[in-house]
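Here is the promised in-class demo. Please do not try to memorize the tokens; focus on the logic of going from shape to residues.
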């Protein structure tokens, strides 16, 4: 039932104004004028006819703040209409991967039920508090005539990946997590 609710929540999120979205703690940290990227490694990318996603593992240091370092993923999304950058803290990456795994399972369930066209999501991407959204990513799978993943960052743009499955995104985030855990930056969280 939660994946049915997500489809409605995803469509509702498409109407939200970008001004209502605040940065995540990791994004605010990374964009601080005194912060520096001390280590980065591209973990992978996915490209479709409509959008590109580049996932980079990063370690950010800022001697002026506590903690003095943080690590996570930087997602660079682009489409012909524009681009967006999202930061996901290391401790949140497993939940994002789990969300894509849940979408994969839900797609299989819907195929078994004979549903022809719908958006399928996961609880991990559902943000019911519409007045306090953070700049993060949300995902759903469209089963219609051009099946594929759609990513939202709660801004005005949608990043569509027709022909790509949630399993591909899950594998990309697993690879990114592995890359992130191999960093030699001093073990920041």
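The designed amino acids, position by position:
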């Amino acid at each position: 039932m939660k994946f049915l609710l997500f489809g409605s929540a995803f469509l509702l999120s498409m109407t939200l104004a970008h001004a209502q979205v605040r940065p995540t703690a990791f994004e605010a940290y990374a964009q601080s004028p005194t912060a520096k990227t001390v280590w980065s490694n591209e973990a992978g990318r996915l490209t479709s006819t409509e959008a590109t996603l580049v996932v980079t593992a990063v370690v950010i240091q800022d001697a002026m703040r506590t903690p003095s370092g943080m690590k996570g993923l930087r997602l660079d999304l682009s489409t012909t209409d524009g681009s967006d950058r999202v930061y996901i803290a290391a401790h949140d990456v497993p939940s994002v991967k789990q969300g894509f795994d849940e979408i994969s399972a839900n797609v299989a369930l819907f195929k078994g039920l004979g549903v022809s066209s719908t958006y399928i999501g996961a609880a991990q991407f559902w943000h019911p508090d519409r007045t306090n959204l953070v700049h993060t990513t949300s995902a759903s799978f469209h089963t219609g005539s051009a099946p594929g993943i759609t990513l939202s960052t709660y801004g005005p743009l949608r990043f569509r990946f027709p022909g790509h499955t949630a399993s591909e995104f899950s594998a990309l985030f697993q690879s990114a997590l592995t890359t992130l855990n191999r960093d030699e930056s001093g073990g920041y969280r």
